[in-house]
Amino acid sequence: MKKQIVLLLSLFFAIFQLQAAYLENVPLTLIQPNGDTLHCLATGDEYYHYLHDVNGFTIMLNPATGYYVYADKIGDRLIPTDYVAG
To answer: What does pTM read for this prediction?
Structure first.
């Protein structure tokens, strides 16, 4: 019985110690559809993350073209622009 209580308390404290691993400015190399190399940075954790350049401009994949482009914020949404990143 004592072992079960210790195990239960250990499990309880371990659950509250779990956190997402937040990383900033992790270098990442992407290949554009035309073969060009894009060097960018990734910031975030496993739940929320984004790509950006060294100046802090957000980069996203344009699903229509397949290119990584700079993003524009309209309201509370990010939309891809026509400006290819890099």
So the answer is: 0.74
